[in-house]
Automatic annotation (TrEMBL):
SUPFAM superfamilies: Acyl-CoA N-acyltransferases (Nat) (SSF55729). The keyword DNA repair does not apply. Its EC number is 2.3.1.184. This is Acyl-homoserine-lactone synthase. It holds the Pfam family Autoind_synth. It catalyses: a fatty acyl-[ACP] + S-adenosyl-L-methionine = an N-acyl-L-homoserine lactone + S-methyl-5'-thioadenosine + holo-[ACP] + H(+). It is an enzyme of class 2 (transferase). Belongs to the autoinducer synthase family. Keywords: Autoinducer synthesis, Quorum sensing, S-adenosyl-L-methionine, Transferase. Gene3D superfamilies: 3.40.630.30. It comes from Paracoccus spongiarum.
């Protein structure tokens, strides 16, 4: 199913501190694709250089099989500098070729396709549903307001494309933070962990505007 809306164009939300949140997706977002490159660079700086996660990286960028032209990026800037971002994928999307076709990170981990991530992330196998999206690889190099702006803009985008809910893979603290902002988030599985830390799958309904 192809969803067309004005949100396919690059949009931004400004704040009093100079923060802007951009929705960048192919093909309308090509003029702003440099923001995606800067976001992948920030992921490498934070996840690989600072946190020392054993993630694939090349040319100072951290990326993987879920970073494709089918992916939607929510990117925060401050005075033109990328200070945060996240990756959005519809859960019925497929990427890759040959016999191995990836869907999205949380489901593929539960299916045992991602070495290093636990298979028991969820109590039940998560869905492949055009109305359910996944948000992963959130990284913020700034105050909590940046995270909040990213999530608010994500909700606006998902509301516009007819999504019902979004799945997150993040730290247990994210669940407490979401509830603190009155997001009706709920855990879909136990708190898990590996050498990178502790994390949990969380689902949050899209709030209709």
């Amino acid at each position: 199913m192809t969803i067309r809306s004005t949100t396919e164009e690059v949009k931004s939300r400004a704040s009093n501190d100079g923060y802007e949140i951009h929705i960048v997706r192919y093909p309308d977002g090509i003029p702003n694709w440099h923001l995606v490159t800067a976001y992948l660079k920030l992921r490498k700086e934070v996840f690989v250089d600072r946190l020392e996660w054993p993630l694939f990286h090349a040319e100072e960028l951290e990326f993987e099989q879920y970073d494709t032209f089918d992916t939607t990026y929510v990117i925060a800037t401050q005075h033109m500098r990328v200070v945060g971002g996240a990756r959005l994928r519809r859960t019925d999307q497929r990427s890759g070729g040959g016999n191995l076709r990836y869907s999205y990170m949380i489901r593929d981990a539960c299916l045992g396709l991602l070495p290093g991530l636990p298979e028991d992330l969820c109590y039940h196998l998560p869905p492949e549903d055009e109305h359910v999206w996944e948000l992963t690889r959130m990284v913020v190099d700034g105050p909590p307001v940046v995270t909040k702006l990213i999530l608010e803009t994500t909700n606006e985008f998902l509301n516009a494309v007819g999504a019902n809910s979004v799945l997150f893979l993040g730290s247990p603290a994210f669940l407490r933070m979401a509830r603190g902002w009155r997001w009706p988030a709920a855990s879909l599985g136990p708190i898990s962990g590996n050498q990178d830390g502790r994390f949990q799958v969380i689902e949050c309904p899209v709030r209709h505007l």
